[in-house]
C-alpha cells in the first residue's frame, strides 16, 4: 500500500514535473525572491508609504458620509446619521441634478473631443518626415502642460477677456468686442479649448512611444501589397495602438466624473453656478463652503463608487473583446 | 497706515460690488455670523460680564468725530509719542496666529526687518498663517477640522459658532469681564458696542477687532480724472450718475467708469435698508424691498452701455483696486478704510481721491449709505494655548495700542528711515515698509480706527468731511453682531444663489422679473428662518 502510494506519487510527479517544481518553487520562492529582490522592494517603500498616507488613509474620512459631521467635534464625536446624507442623491435635489447634468455633458465632450485629440496629433507628428520639425512642434505643444490651472486661466483671460488682448484691439479699432469669458453659452467650449491647449501635447507622448514600437516591416509588407497611407493607418498603425488606446480609455472612465475641479472653480464666478457646477465643485461648495460636510462626502463617495464600477465593467468588456485591459483578475 | 481694510468680501459679494455685504454671512461678508449673541445671550447676562470701558485720553484729535459717530482725524502724528507698554508682552515662546489678509503676503522672516524687530519688541516670535480674506471661511473650516488652529485665531463664519468656540476656544470671561479687563488697558479702550460680537451664551470668547463707520462702503472717484474730463464729483440723481459714467467711459482708451457693478450704491439711492429693517418685532430682509426692479433697471443700463468694466464679474477683489489705481476705472465701490491703501498703492502720482455720496434716485436729496458694523471680527484664544492665555491677551493688548503711542507708530509704520520717511514730522510708508508690515496685525487686534493719511496733505480732512457728510445719516444694520445658526449654516449658500441671479439680471441673462422669484426661493430656503432667528436674538438683546 505504502509502496503503491509512493509509486503513484512518483508517477504523478513524473507525469507533471512542472507542477511539482512549481509547487516546490512557490514554497521556496517567497524567501528566495525576497532575498533576490529586496533592493527593489526597499526602493518601493517610499512610494508605498505615500500611497498609504495620501490614498488609503484618507479613505477613513468617508465615514463622515454617514455622520452629521462638525469639524470642531471631529469624526470621533460627531453624531451618526445613517443614510440621511444620501437623500440628496435619491430625492433628486435640483442643484445636485444640475451638477450631474453638467458633469455628464462635459464628460461626453471630453470623450468625443479631448480623448482622441492626442491620437490625431500623434499620427500627424508621426507622419512628419523632418525629425527636427517634429521635435520642435513637440516641445512647443508639451509646454502648457507644466503650467498650473491658475496660469492657464489667467492666460486665457488676458487674451480673450473683456479687456484682453483681442477685445482691446477690437475696441481700439472701432469694432464691437467679443463676449467670451463670462459668456454662459461659450463656457463649455472655453473649458474644452483650455484642456486641449494644456494637455493634448503631453498626452501625445505615450502615443508617439507606441507608434515607434510598431514593427517597420508591417509597413513595408503592406506597401508591397499596395496599401496607401490611409490603408496603412487603418490596418497597421491603429491596430498597433489599440491596446494602449483601450487601456487609457478604461483608466479615463475612472476619471470620467472628475471634470476639471480646479479649472472650473477658478472660473465659476464669471458664469455662475447654473452653467458651471459639476460634481466636484458641488462637493466643495456644499462641504467646505456650506458646511454640509456629510452630504458632500456622501456625494463624493457615490461618485467614487460609480467610477469604480465603470472601470471594472469596462475592464471586463475589454477582456470579452480579447484585449488585455488594465489588468487580468 | 499700512492698513487696507475692506471687510472680507464673499465670493459673490465681490462680484456684486459689495452688494451682498452682510447677507452672505457664511461666506464672510458680514459680521452677523462672525460672532454675536447666541440664543441664551440676553442683555442681563451680557451686562454682568461686559468688559468695563475706559477711554484712552492720551491724544487730542485735530478733528473730533465722536459727535458724528465717525473716527477722530489727525493731521500730524504726535511729536513725542508715549510709550504705552513697558514690558514686552511675550513669554519667549512662539505665538501662532490664524487670520486673514487683504494685502500681498509679506516677505519671509529672514528677509523682513520689520518682522524681526516686531518679534523683538513683542518678546515672542510671531508665526502667522495668513489667508486671503475671500477664502478665509473655507480655510477656517478645514483648519478647524484638521485641528490646526493657531494659539490665536480669527473666528470664521462656520456653522455652529458657539458650539465650536465651546469646544475649541478658551472662555475669556474671568480675564476680561467687568474691571478685570483693566489689566489690559488698551482692550478696555475698545468701543463698548463691538464686544457684542465676542460674547456668546453669556461668556466672552473673543476680542473684537473694531471698525464701525470706517467699514461703510462708499463710491470712490478719481477726482483728477473727473476734472480732466470736465466732470464734477457730485451727482444729484440716478440719471446724473449714469451721465457721469458715460462721461468717464472711453472705449478707445479701454477706460470703463466703474471697476465693478455699483449694486450697493444704486441701492443706497433708493434708501434700501442695510441688510434688515425692523417691522414691529420682526425683521424684513432688504432683498424684499420693492425698489429692486428699478435698481436693476439702472444697473442693466450701466452694463449694457459698457460703463462697467467688462471683467467686473470675472476678476478678483484686488483687480478692482488695480483698475482704480491705474485709472482704467475711475469709480470704485469700497470701504472708507481702503483709503490709506489707495494712497499708498496709487500708480499715478497726481491722483486725487474723492467720495461721491449717493443721491436720491429722483433727485430729491441725499441717498442713504450703509453703516459698517462695529467690529469686523473677533479673535479667540485656542484651548491648546490655555496655559498662556495671559500672555496672549497681553499680546492683543499690545496690538490694540491706540494712535499717538510709540507702539502704534511702529506697528503701522515700522522703523524711521527703514520703513518710512518723515515728512514734516509725519511717517510716510515706503515700498519696503508697505510690503514688510503686512503681517495681518490689524486682523488680530486693533485700536479704534483713526483717520490719519500722512501720504497726502489734506487727505485726512477730505476723508473726515466725506465721512461727516455720509455717516450720520447712514443706515445701521439692526441685526449687526447678532448670531443666527441658519445664517452661518446656509446664509452663504442661499445668499450666493440670490446674488447669482442679481449678476445674471445685471448682465442681461435674466429678466428683472427673475428677482422676485429668486427672493422667494431665498426666503423659503432659509431666509425666513434667518429673519426669525435674528429677530429673536434682537429681542432678547434688548
UniProtKB/TrEMBL annotation, chain B:
Q: Which SUPFAM superfamilies does the protein's record reference?
A: Periplasmic binding protein-like II
Q: Which Gene3D superfamilies match?
A: Periplasmic binding protein-like II (3.40.190.10)
Pfam families per the record? SBP_bac_1
List the InterPro entries hit by this protein, alphabetically: Bact_solute-bd_prot1, SBP, TAT_signal
PANTHER family per UniProt: ARABINOSE-BINDING PROTEIN-RELATED
The name this protein carries in UniProt is Extracellular solute-binding protein
Amino acid at each position: 500500500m505504502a509502496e503503491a502510494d509512493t509509486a503513484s506519487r512518483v508517477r504523478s510527479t513524473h507525469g507533471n514535473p512542472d507542477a511539482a517544481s512549481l509547487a516546490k518553487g512557490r514554497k521556496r520562492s517567497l524567501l528566495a525572491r525576497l532575498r533576490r529582490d529586496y533592493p527593489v522592494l526597499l526602493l518601493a517603500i517610499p512610494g508605498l508609504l505615500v500611497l498609504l498616507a495620501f490614498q488609503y488613509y484618507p479613505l477613513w474620512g468617508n465615514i463622515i458620509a454617514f455622520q452629521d459631521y462638525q469639524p470642531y467635534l471631529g469624526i470621533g464625536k460627531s453624531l451618526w446619521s445613517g443614510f440621511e446624507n444620501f437623500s440628496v442623491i435619491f430625492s433628486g435635489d435640483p442643484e445636485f441634478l444640475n451638477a450631474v447634468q453638467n458633469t455628464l455633458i462635459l464628460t461626453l465632450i471630453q470623450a468625443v473631443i479631448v480623448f482622441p485629440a492626442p491620437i490625431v496629433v500623434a499620427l500627424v507628428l508621426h507622419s512628419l518626415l523632418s525629425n527636427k520639425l517634429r521635435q520642435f512642434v513637440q516641445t512647443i505643444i508639451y509646454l502648457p502642460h507644466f503650467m498650473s490651472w491658475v496660469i492657464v486661466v489667467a492666460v486665457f483671460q488676458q487674451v480673450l477677456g473683456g479687456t484682453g488682448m483681442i477685445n482691446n484691439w477690437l475696441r481700439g479699432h472701432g469694432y464691437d468686442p467679443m463676449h467670451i469669458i463670462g459668456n454662459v453659452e461659450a463656457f463649455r467650449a472655453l473649458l474644452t479649448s483650455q484642456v486641449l491647449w494644456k494637455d493634448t501635447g503631453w498626452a501625445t507622448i505615450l502615443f508617439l512611444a507606441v507608434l515607434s514600437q510598431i514593427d517597420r516591416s508591417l509597413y513595408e509588407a503592406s506597401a508591397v501589397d499596395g496599401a496607401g497611407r490611409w490603408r496603412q493607418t487603418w490596418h497597421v498603425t491603429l491596430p498597433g495602438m489599440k491596446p494602449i488606446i483601450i487601456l487609457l480609455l478604461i483608466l479615463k472612465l475612472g476619471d470620467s466624473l472628475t471634470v476639471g475641479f480646479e479649472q472650473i472653480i477658478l472660473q465659476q464666478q464669471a458664469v455662475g453656478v447654473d452653467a458651471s457646477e459639476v460634481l466636484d465643485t458641488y462637493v466643495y461648495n456644499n462641504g467646505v463652503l456650506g458646511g454640509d460636510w456629510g452630504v458632500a462626502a456622501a456625494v463624493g463617495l457615490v461618485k467614487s463608487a460609480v467610477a469604480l464600477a465603470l472601470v471594472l465593467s469596462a475592464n471586463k468588456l475589454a477582456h470579452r473583446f480579447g484585449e488585455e485591459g488594465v489588468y487580468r483578475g | 497706515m499700512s492698513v487696507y481694510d475692506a471687510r472680507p468680501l464673499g465670493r459673490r459679494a465681490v462680484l456684486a460690488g459689495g452688494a451682498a455685504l452682510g447677507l452672505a454671512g457664511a461666506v464672510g461678508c458680514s459680521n452677523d455670523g462672525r460672532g454675536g449673541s447666541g440664543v441664551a445671550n440676553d442683555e442681563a447676562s451680557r451686562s454682568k460680564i461686559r468688559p468695563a470701558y475706559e477711554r484712552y485720553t492720551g491724544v487730542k484729535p485735530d478733528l473730533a468725530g465722536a459727535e458724528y459717530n465717525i473716527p477722530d482725524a489727525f493731521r500730524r502724528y504726535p511729536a513725542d509719542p508715549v510709550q504705552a507698554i513697558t514690558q514686552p508682552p511675550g513669554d519667549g515662546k512662539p505665538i501662532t496666529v490664524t487670520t486673514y489678509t487683504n494685502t500681498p503676503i509679506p516677505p519671509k522672516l529672514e528677509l523682513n526687518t520689520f518682522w524681526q524687530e516686531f518679534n523683538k519688541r513683542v518678546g515672542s516670535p510671531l508665526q502667522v498663517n495668513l489667508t486671503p480674506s475671500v477664502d478665509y471661511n473655507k480655510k477656517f473650516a478645514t483648519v478647524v477640522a484638521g485641528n490646526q488652529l493657531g494659539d490665536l485665531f480669527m473666528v470664521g463664519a462656520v456653522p455652529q459658532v458657539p458650539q465650536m468656540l465651546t469646544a475649541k476656544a478658551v472662555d475669556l470671561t474671568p480675564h476680561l469681564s467687568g474691571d478685570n479687563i483693566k489689566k489690559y488697558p488698551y482692550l478696555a479702550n475698545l468701543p463698548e458696542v463691538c464686544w457684542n460680537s465676542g460674547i456668546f451664551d453669556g461668556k466672552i470668547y473673543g476680542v473684537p477687532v473694531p471698525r464701525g463707520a470706517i467699514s461703510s462702503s462708499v463710491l470712490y472717484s478719481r477726482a483728477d480724472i473727473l476734472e480732466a474730463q470736465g466732470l464734477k464729483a457730485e451727482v444729484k440723481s440716478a440719471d446724473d450718475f449714469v451721465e457721469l459714467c458715460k462721461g468717464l467711459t472711453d472705449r478707445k482708451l479701454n477706460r470703463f467708469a466703474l471697476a465693478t457693478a455699483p449694486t450697493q450704491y444704486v441701492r443706497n439711492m433708493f434708501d434700501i435698508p442695510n441688510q434688515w429693517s425692523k417691522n414691529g418685532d420682526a425683521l424684513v430682509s432688504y432683498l424684499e424691498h420693492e425698489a429692486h426692479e428699478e435698481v436693476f433697471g439702472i444697473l442693466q443700463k450701466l452694463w449694457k452701455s459698457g460703463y462697467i468694466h467688462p471683467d467686473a464679474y470675472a476678476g478678483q477683489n484686488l483687480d478692482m483696486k488695480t483698475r482704480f489705481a491705474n485709472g482704467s476705472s475711475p469709480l470704485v465701490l469700497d470701504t472708507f478704510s481702503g483709503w490709506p491703501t489707495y494712497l499708498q498703492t496709487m500708480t499715478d502720482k497726481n491722483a486725487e481721491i474723492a467720495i461721491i455720496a449717493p443721491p436720491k434716485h429722483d433727485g430729491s436729496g441725499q441717498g442713504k449709505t450703509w453703516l459698517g458694523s462695529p467690529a469686523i471680527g473677533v479673535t479667540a484664544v485656542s484651548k491648546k494655548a490655555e496655559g498662556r492665555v495671559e500672555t496672549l491677551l497681553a499680546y492683543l493688548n499690545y496690538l490694540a495700542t491706540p494712535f499717538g503711542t510709540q507702539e502704534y507708530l511702529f506697528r503701522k509704520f515700522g522703523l524711521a528711515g527703514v520703513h518710512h520717511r518723515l515728512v514734516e514730522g509725519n511717517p510716510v510708508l515706503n515700498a519696503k515698509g508697505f510690503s514688510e508690515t503686512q503681517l495681518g496685525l490689524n486682523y488680530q487686534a486693533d485700536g479704534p480706527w483713526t483717520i490719519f493719511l500722512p501720504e497726502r496733505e489734506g487727505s485726512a480732512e477730505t476723508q473726515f468731511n466725506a465721512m461727516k457728510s455720509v455717516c450720520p445719516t447712514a443706515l445701521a444694520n439692526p441685526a449687526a453682531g447678532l448670531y443666527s445658526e441658519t445664517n452661518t449654516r446656509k446664509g452663504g449658500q442661499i445668499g450666493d444663489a440670490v446674488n447669482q441671479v442679481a449678476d445674471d439680471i445685471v448682465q442681461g441673462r435674466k429678466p428683472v422679473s427673475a428677482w422676485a422669484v429668486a427672493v422667494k426661493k431665498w426666503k423659503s430656503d432659509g431666509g425666513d428662518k434667518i429673519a426669525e432667528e435674528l429677530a429673536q436674538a434682537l429681542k432678547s438683546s434688548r
